[in-house]
């Protein structure tokens, strides 16, 4: 199984917080990951549930690919509606079974044009299950 997060231009994603292992994620013990940064650098490794994967260079995350060792039928996480590095927002996220990106709105899109009020910036999350 592959979980892919396509981070849009206009959002400077600096870290990914993985959901903690709970009864809602039975059997999950690790994630392999491959993260491509805006500058083309690829970060790879293995992380445990509840870990935070932080960018290794001063370049925002653009594509995150996660490969959980186990995702049982019916597994789920809590909703992550407002999870940022701000203490007031993060209090709702800390210690729960949520996956979320940390970062901030960029001043400019990747092509250099300014981000303006009212612009829509959407993150795409895809789950792919390979055929057997």
Keywords:
132 residues; mainly beta; 5-stranded antiparallel β-sheet; 3-stranded antiparallel β-sheet; 8 strands; 36% strand; elongated
Chain-wise SSE layout:
Elements: E1 2-6, E2 11-17, E3 31-37, E4 42-47, E5 52-54, E6 61-68, H1 87-90, E7 100-105, E8 124-128
Antiparallel strand pairs: 1-6, 1-8, 2-5, 2-7, 3-4, 3-6
Protein architecture, described:
The protein has 132 residues and is mostly beta strands. It has 1 helix and 8 strands; from the N terminus they run ββββββαββ. It has a 5-stranded antiparallel β-sheet, with no helix packed on it. The longest helix has 4 residues, at 87-90.
Which sheet architecture does the biggest sheet show?
A: 5 strands, antiparallel
CA(first)-CA(last) distance: 11 Å
Shape: elongated
- Order of strands across the main sheet: 4-3-6-1-8
Question: What is the chains' assembly state?
Answer: single chain
Strand content: 35-45%
- Series of H and E elements: EEEEEEHEE
Low-pLDDT segments: none
**How confident is the prediction overall: mean pLDDT?**
82
Beta strand count: 8
Helical fraction equals under 10%
Q: What structural class do the secondary elements suggest?
A: mainly beta
Radius of gyration: 15 Å
Question: How many distinct helices?
Answer: 1
């Amino acid at each position: 199984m592959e979980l892919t997060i396509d981070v849009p231009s206009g959002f400077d994603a600096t870290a990914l917080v993985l959901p903690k292992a709970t009864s809602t994620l039975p059997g999950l013990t690790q994630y392999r990951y491959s993260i491509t940064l805006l500058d083309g650098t690829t970060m790879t490794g293995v992380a445990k549930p509840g870990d935070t994967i932080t960018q290794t260079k001063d370049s925002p995350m653009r594509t995150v690919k996660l490969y959980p060792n186990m995702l049982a039928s019916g597994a789920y996480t809590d909703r992550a509606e407002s999870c940022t590095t701000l203490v007031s927002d993060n209090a709702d996220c800390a210690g729960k079974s949520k996956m979320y990106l940390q970062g901030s709105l960029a001043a400019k899109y990747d092509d250099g044009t300014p981000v303006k009020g009212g612009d829509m910036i959407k993150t795409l999350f895809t789950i792919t299950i390979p055929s057997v």
